[in-house]
Design a protein that fits this description.
The structure is a single chain. By secondary structure, the chain is α/β, with parallel strands linked by helices. The chain is 31% helix and 16% strand. The protein has an 8-stranded mixed β-sheet with strand order 6-3-7-2-8-1-10-9, sandwiched between helices. α3 packs across α6 and α6 packs across α8. Pfam families: LigB (PF02900). Keywords: Plasmid. It comes from Mycolicibacterium frederiksbergense.
């Protein structure tokens, strides 16, 4: 295996969530799925049920035959590491199979958790916001969003897709209110009127909405925009505390809530380090998450290093998700440092033991 293809693998763990039956509600049709189904909240039940974290590089959605073109586009004229030459059609095909298997695993845990609302934590790369307005933190409280997955490849038929996703406006409003009460300064949006590009909501939201099947499942989403690219940037410690606040707000609500961190790990597309992947950094981050030591990531961006610039800053979304689950170890599904994706691709999830035990009890009683 090429030295660049260092990996962090974990054993398969079968999902433990069972589908719920919601009385007097028809949820078979996504268009009729209620935003806030009724729940009987038992003492101590935690409503933040699941966390998912995934990279969102174009290669995840692109046909493998289009990887070389995308690689050339994103690396530009940056000299590549020697390990990049070891990637070829055969290794790319193998990597694509691994990616697809990882996505299937994440889709499965989302389906099993069956959340009523999914918070997506992602950044905006001058897609909705522009240089005139770039909030550190924003919550979209509208009823629906739409956007394109790969607008840069719109010249190729069948590659770029426009997707529509409904949003949990009521929960989003409660989330924004709770964050303000937790001393977070939040920009609130009720309509999506891009100030920058005309493609709608950015790829940090549309791509996982597509490749994780979120749009097809009809799960209402709450887009949370977290600045990961443009100065001034939030500290890792602030991101972790954001996750803590999200958990506290979610656990006070009647909805079953899931969180999705979109982006990362190390990458700098079209930047001075394009094509270079910091495996040491990525492995360190993943190991901390696996060990339930996400709080140790709070000082991650205190050193101004070139490797932290560009897309690597999206690790902030992962740190936020880690804060939402505190000391709970993450299940690291896979790590694939792939030059043709110019990214250290990673896939992980968290399941709270309280919810796992609750679902097992329901299965035993049925």
């Amino acid at each position: 295996m090429p030295d660049a293809l260092c990996e962090v693998r974990s054993h398969h763990r079968a999902g433990l969530f069972a589908a719920r039956n919601i009385p007097d509600q028809d949820v078979s049709d996504p268009d009729r799925r209620p935003e806030n189904p009724p729940h009987t909240i038992r003492l101590g039940l935690k409503m933040l049920t699941l966390g998912v974290a995934t990279s969102h590089a174009p290669a995840i959605l692109l046909p493998v035959d289009d990887w070389p073109r995308a690689y050339e586009l994103m690396r530009g004229d940056v000299a590549q590491p020697l390990s990049a030459a070891q990637e070829n059609a055969a290794t790319n095909a193998a990597a694509k199979r691994r990616i697809d298997a990882n996505l299937a695993r994440l889709r499965s845990v989302i389906q099993e958790a069956d959340p009523d609302v999914l918070i997506i934590i992602g950044d905006d790369q001058a897609e909705v916001f522009g240089s005139a307005f770039n909030p550190t933190l924003a919550v979209y409280c509208g009823t629906e969003v739409s956007g394109h997955t790969l607008p840069r490849f719109a010249d190729q038929p069948g590659i770029d897709e426009r997707i529509d996703m409904k949003c949990g406006a009521e929960f989003a409003t409660a989330l924004a209110t709770g964050l303000v009460e937790s001393s977070f300064d939040v920009a609130v949006m009720t309509e999506l009127k891009p100030l920058s590009k005309p493609h709608g909501i950015g790829h940090a939201f549309t791509r996982p909405g597509r490749f994780l099947g979120i749009a097809d499942m009809g799960i209402p989403i709450v887009p949370v925009f977290l600045n990961c690219y443009f100065n001034p940037l939030p500290t890792a410690a602030r991101c972790y505390e954001l996750g803590v606040a999200i958990r506290e707000i979610a656990d006070s609500r009647p909805e079953r809530v899931a969180v999705l961190a979109s982006g990362g790990l190390s990458h700098d597309p079209a930047g001075p380090r394009a094509g270079w992947i910091d495996c040491d950094l990525d492995n360190w981050v993943l190991n901390k998450l696996r060990e339930g030591q996400g709080r140790e990531l709070e000082n991650l961006f205190t050193v101004d290093s070139g490797t932290y610039h560009g897309g690597t800053g999206e690790i902030r979304a992962w740190i936020t998700a880690a804060g939402a689950f505190d000391t709970l170890p993450a299940e690291v599904v896979d790590y694939i440092p792939l030059h043709h994706a110019v990214t250290g691709l990673a896939f992980a999830y968290w399941q709270r033991p309280e919810q796992v035990n609750d679902q097992l009890a329901q299965q035993s009683a049925s």
